Amino acid sequence: MHANFFGYSHRDMLSIRNIKSLMPTYISSIHDVLIDNYLDRGHSPLLENSHFSFAVDKNGFLIPLSIHLSAVFNISDDFRMNAVLLKLPSEKEYIIIN
Prior knowledge:
The protein contains three helices and three strands. It is of the alpha+beta class. The chain has one domain (3-87): Beta-Lactamase (2-Layer Sandwich), CATH 3.30.450.20. The protein has a three-stranded antiparallel sheet, with no helix packed on it. The longest helix has 17 residues, at 25-41. It is globular.
């Protein structure tokens, strides 16, 4: 991850231990369930297609972005998830209610 994308210094970014801290609460609260569902079903509608979402910057502000998720299975006995994030222009204002 590139620290400047989220407004963090490189040093601050190293202290982040869980990707959920870069997500809005409404996403981070269901993140583990989404992963479990993927592991149980072997597929997810969120994979292989780009979709609109948000991230949270260092100051707690939302960053509108396009995210493309993919699973990589070339690791022995495990897999990893890759995400490509593209910041979108902030031409709109958003209100998100938990």
